[in-house]
Specification:
The chain is of the alpha+beta class. The protein is built from 18 helices and nine strands.
């Protein structure tokens, strides 16, 4: 039992050593090479939608950067791609639009072959449709197609939610086809897509280094993390890391997360505090366990390779292993209600996994309305307490 459990855990944390998670495949660049990132924004116009005189004149001036189909046209507004690569991307996007493969507001990620040093790159593209006029509800709408390119398809898929949210943050700045705020608002925003949507996990690991286990434990145990004496970006990075590492929303019981948060607010445990007035930052009220400590080196190795995509994959594996252990404990608890031997196996499992405190905390919240299960959990909590006191 312990052999298979250890083997499975080692497979999870050694993700960066396996061929199927090689840095070239996930990120699209080698360890020693800086990743090139690109963006492009197009104006999308349905041919049945009415255009103002100013829009028509603008489109005529941009005729050499426009691709027209029977039911829409696609006009380049701005791009950081090399001049020879942008028409290739426009052709690709036009084909996707013709097939109805781009739905409004939903990002699409694929691999595209362009005239770039990388040749094949991951491409995220999203159609942001403008609101249709009440007078013409059935008319083809206008909008913008935003594309982000860099890394690989597999790597960008790890950050799909972040990319969707980042694109939506641009909606308020896209008011007119001419985009008079292109240089002041739109272009700076698009240029920062990689730093803001992908690099936050890397920045947090670089910030706390070996202390990353404290943040992992805080995320699993729903402990609030407070960042003081830092800029807003660092606070946002840490908040996003905690959210990405937590299991909230993944539990089978919708009430589990709420129960945990309530239990933690009533607990005497203090918030984890990160004081950035010193370098490296000082952490207070730190709590960790063997399970979280065992993941430290995997995070540090990926950060040393400057590979944010691999870091995200390791974080996902961390969560997956925690969920697997949580499900195993729930199964053992159900069995222990009818068997003393199952209770013994429960104790063995908690002793071996290194994450007993977090697992029991989640189990107690999820089984709060089941008296028999709560009594089993109380026995297990006493067992872990005795074990920790004996080791001390």
């Amino acid at each position: 039992m312990f052999t298979s459990q250890t083997s499975s855990f080692q497979d999870s944390i050694d993700v960066e050593e396996r061929d199927d998670f090689d840095s070239d495949e996930i990120s699209g660049y080698s360890q020693k090479t800086q990743l090139n990132c690109y963006y492009t924004i197009y104006l999308y116009q349905g041919t049945r939608s009415e255009a103002s005189g100013d829009n028509v004149a603008w489109n005529q001036r941009r005729a050499d950067s426009t691709t027209s189909q029977d039911d829409f046209s696609l006009t380049l507004i701005d791009s950081s791609l090399p001049s020879e690569a942008e028409p290739e991307l426009r052709t690709y996007i036009s084909r996707r639009l013709s097939k109805g493969a781009l739905l409004g507001g939903m990002g699409n990620i694929a691999t595209v072959d362009l005239s770039l040093p990388e040749q094949a790159v991951g491409c995220y593209c999203c159609l942001l449709e403008q609101e249709r006029s009440p007078e013409q509800p059935d008319a083809d709408g206008n909008g913008y197609v935003i594309c982000f390119m860099g890394g690989s398809e597999k790597g960008l898929n790890l950050f799909r939610l972040e990319l969707d949210k980042y694109v939506q943050g641009l909606r308020s700045s896209l008011q007119t086809p001419e985009l008079q705020n292109l240089e002041t608002e739109v272009r700076p925003y698009l240029t920062q897509w990689y730093e803001e949507s992908v690099m936050h996990i890397y920045r947090v690991v670089q910030l706390v280094q070996n202390n990353i286990s404290f943040l992992l434990h805080a995320a699993l145990s729903h402990t609030h993390v407070e960042v003081i004496n830092s800029d807003e970006r660092t606070k946002a990075d840490v908040s996003r890391f905690i959210k990405a590492a937590s299991l909230q929303g993944l539990s089978q019981q919708d009430t589990t997360a709420a129960s945990l948060c309530k239990a933690m607010s009533e607990d005497t445990q203090s918030d984890l505090t990160i004081d950035c007035s010193t370098s490296p930052p000082t952490l207070a009220n730190t709590v960790s366990n063997r399970f979280c400590d065992d993941w430290i080196q995997a995070f540090l190795n990926a950060a040393e390779r400057c590979n944010p995509f691999l870091l995200r994959q390791i974080l996902e594996n961390f969560k997956l292993k925690a969920i697997q252990d949580m499900n195993s404990l729930k199964r053992f608890v159900r069995q222990a209600e009818m068997s003393h031997y199952a209770l013994f196996r429960c104790c063995q499992f908690l002793q071996g996994c290194g994450n007993g405190d977090v697992l029991l905390q989640n189990a107690r919240a999820e089984h709060s309305e089941l008296p028999e299960a709560c009594s089993i959990i109380s026995v297990l909590e006493d067992f872990l307490l005795e074990q920790s006191q004996a080791q001390a």
